[in-house]
Amino acid sequence: MKTVRAGLIGISGYAGMELARILASHPSMELTMACSRGEAGKKLGDFYPFLRGMPGSDIEICVYDIKKAASACDIAFLAVPAGTAMQMAPELLEAGVKVVDLSADFRLHDVAVYEQWYRQKHTASGYLADAVYGLPELYAASISRAKLVANPGCYPTASILGAYAAIKHGIIHTDNIVIDAKSGASGAGRKAAVPTLFCEVSDNFRPYGAPTHRHTPEIEQELSLIAGRDMIVSFVPHLVPMKRGILAAIYANLTDKKQDLASIHALFAETWSMSPWIRVLPAGTLPETANVRGSMYCDIGICVDSRAGRLIIFSAIDNLCRGASGQAIADANLMFGLPVNCGMADMAPLP
Amino acid sequence: MKTVRAGLIGISGYAGMELARILASHPSMELTMACSRGEAGKKLGDFYPFLRGMPGSDIEICVYDIKKAASACDIAFLAVPAGTAMQMAPELLEAGVKVVDLSADFRLHDVAVYEQWYRQKHTASGYLADAVYGLPELYAASISRAKLVANPGCYPTASILGAYAAIKHGIIHTDNIVIDAKSGASGAGRKAAVPTLFCEVSDNFRPYGAPTHRHTPEIEQELSLIAGRDMIVSFVPHLVPMKRGILAAIYANLTDKKQDLASIHALFAETWSMSPWIRVLPAGTLPETANVRGSMYCDIGICVDSRAGRLIIFSAIDNLCRGASGQAIADANLMFGLPVNCGMADMAPLP
Amino acid sequence: MKTVRAGLIGISGYAGMELARILASHPSMELTMACSRGEAGKKLGDFYPFLRGMPGSDIEICVYDIKKAASACDIAFLAVPAGTAMQMAPELLEAGVKVVDLSADFRLHDVAVYEQWYRQKHTASGYLADAVYGLPELYAASISRAKLVANPGCYPTASILGAYAAIKHGIIHTDNIVIDAKSGASGAGRKAAVPTLFCEVSDNFRPYGAPTHRHTPEIEQELSLIAGRDMIVSFVPHLVPMKRGILAAIYANLTDKKQDLASIHALFAETWSMSPWIRVLPAGTLPETANVRGSMYCDIGICVDSRAGRLIIFSAIDNLCRGASGQAIADANLMFGLPVNCGMADMAPLP
Amino acid sequence: MKTVRAGLIGISGYAGMELARILASHPSMELTMACSRGEAGKKLGDFYPFLRGMPGSDIEICVYDIKKAASACDIAFLAVPAGTAMQMAPELLEAGVKVVDLSADFRLHDVAVYEQWYRQKHTASGYLADAVYGLPELYAASISRAKLVANPGCYPTASILGAYAAIKHGIIHTDNIVIDAKSGASGAGRKAAVPTLFCEVSDNFRPYGAPTHRHTPEIEQELSLIAGRDMIVSFVPHLVPMKRGILAAIYANLTDKKQDLASIHALFAETWSMSPWIRVLPAGTLPETANVRGSMYCDIGICVDSRAGRLIIFSAIDNLCRGASGQAIADANLMFGLPVNCGMADMAPLP
Question: From the DSSP assignment, how many helices (H) and strands (E) are in chain D?
Answer without folding.
Answer: 11, 13
